[in-house]
């Protein structure tokens, strides 16, 4: 290692929230620090494609949003007195979905552009050329999009349209990168300007000014709901394959509204509880406050297997449900 120094690396910061991890200076710092630097670089990549999906599968997005994230910790402390201000209206939900999907598209494109700006075209100098990198990104996104559309389209419902729009925007942008980028430029923008703008927009304006300054207006999780790309991607994973659910016993609900009032993510929990529907919302961070304030024990946070779960909606409707057969499956 150079002078015995170790590269700085925050283990809890994962792409896309850690937007600067693949900047040129970071890569050089890792590689110049010997084996431990290379190991941390590999860890950063594994965190995106392996570690994060596994943890989300087991615990939902709350492993990060409620247990690890500093922004979440700030929201739960400094912003706790504003949690009831989170808008629960259908309009706010629609805006949230459009904005957060747009943020994911923006972050994906900007990260691709930043990495692309450091690469070259000479195959004798670069094992990963600009063209190869863009093709790789396109193939990876196509595989993810194809899997979601083939096997999870019913679960995504309307969000499938958002996903399709975002996918095609990214693919068109990747083609634009290839044909409209020159030396030191990415899509007609200077590489240096692009990197600085990205850091300023995401790291300062969105997460800093809007994320904390708007607590008294939109509630304490405004950044988590509308701006955090990490929360959006974890929510996508949580909705599609996570074991985490908030189950409801609708027959016990007295419609007091405590759960909806205290939900900081703007989820109308009472509407789910009244219908006996389990809550499988991408935005849910699993804080557990809805379960804690329920006077009837209607809500329960679960990480158990999907098999053997009792469908409370069927019980609420009075349908014939063989409870013992479901219990014996566990």
What would you note in describing this structure?
The chain is mainly α. The protein folds into 2 domains: 157 residues, no CATH class; 86 residues, 2-Layer Sandwich (Alpha-Beta Plaits), CATH 3.30.70. Helices cover 59% and strands 4% of the residues. The chain is built from 17 helices and 4 strands. Strands 1-2 form a two-stranded antiparallel sheet. Helix 5 crosses helix 12. It is elongated. It starts with 23 loop residues before the first helix and ends with a helix. About 2% of the residues have low confidence.
Features:
330 residues; mainly alpha; Alpha-Beta Plaits; two-stranded antiparallel ribbon; 17 helices; 59% helix; elongated
Q: Tell me which oligomeric state these chains represent.
A: single chain
Largest sheet: 2 strands, antiparallel
| Number of helical elements | 17
Please indicate the percent range of residues in DSSP E strands (runs of 2 or more): under 5%
Number of strands: 4
Low-confidence stretches: 315-319
Radius of gyration: 22 Å
What strand order characterises the main sheet? 1-2
**What is the H-and-E element order?**
HHHHHHHHEEHHHHEHHHEHH
Give the rounded overall mean pLDDT.
78
Helix content: 55-70%
By secondary-structure content and strand pairing, the structural class works out as mainly alpha
End-to-end separation in angstroms reads 52 Å
Number of domains: 2
**Shape type:** elongated
């Amino acid at each position: 290692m150079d002078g015995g120094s170790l590269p700085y690396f925050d283990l809890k910061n994962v792409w896309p929230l850690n937007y600067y991890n693949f900047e040129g200076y970071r890569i050089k710092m890792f590689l110049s620090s010997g084996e431990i630097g290379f190991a941390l670089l590999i860890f950063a990549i594994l965190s995106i494609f392996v570690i994060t999906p596994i943890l989300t599968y087991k615990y939902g997005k709350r492993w990060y949003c409620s247990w690890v994230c500093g922004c979440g910790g700030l929201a739960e402390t400094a912003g706790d007195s504003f949690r009831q201000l989170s808008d629960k209206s259908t309009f706010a939900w629609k805006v949230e979905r459009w904005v957060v999907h747009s943020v994911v598209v923006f972050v994906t494109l900007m990260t691709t552009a930043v990495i692309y700006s450091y690469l070259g075209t000479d195959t004798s100098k670069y094992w990963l050329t600009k063209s190869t990198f863009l093709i790789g990104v396109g193939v990876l996104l196509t595989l993810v999009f194809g899997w979601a559309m083939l096997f999870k389209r019913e679960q995504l419902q309307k969000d499938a349209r958002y996903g399709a729009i975002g996918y095609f925007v990214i693919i068109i942008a990747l083609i634009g990168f290839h044909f409209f980028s020159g030396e030191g430029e990415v899509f007609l923008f200077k590489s240096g300007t692009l990197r600085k703008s990205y850091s300023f927009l995401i790291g300062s304006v969105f997460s800093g000014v809007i994320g904390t300054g708007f607590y008294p207006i939109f509630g304490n999780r405004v950044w988590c709901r509308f701006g955090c790309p990490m929360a959006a991607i974890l929510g996508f994973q949580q909705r599609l394959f996570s074991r985490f659910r908030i189950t409801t016993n609708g027959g016990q609900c007295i419609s007091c509204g405590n759960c909806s009032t205290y939900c900081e993510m703007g989820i109308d929990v009472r509407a789910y509880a009244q219908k006996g529907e389990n809550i499988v919302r991408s935005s849910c961070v699993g804080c557990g406050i809805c379960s804690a304030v329920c006077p009837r024990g209607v809500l329960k946070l679960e990480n158990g297997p999907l098999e053997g779960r009792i469908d409370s909606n069927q019980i609420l409707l009075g349908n014939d449900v063989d409870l013992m057969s479901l219990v014996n499956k566990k």
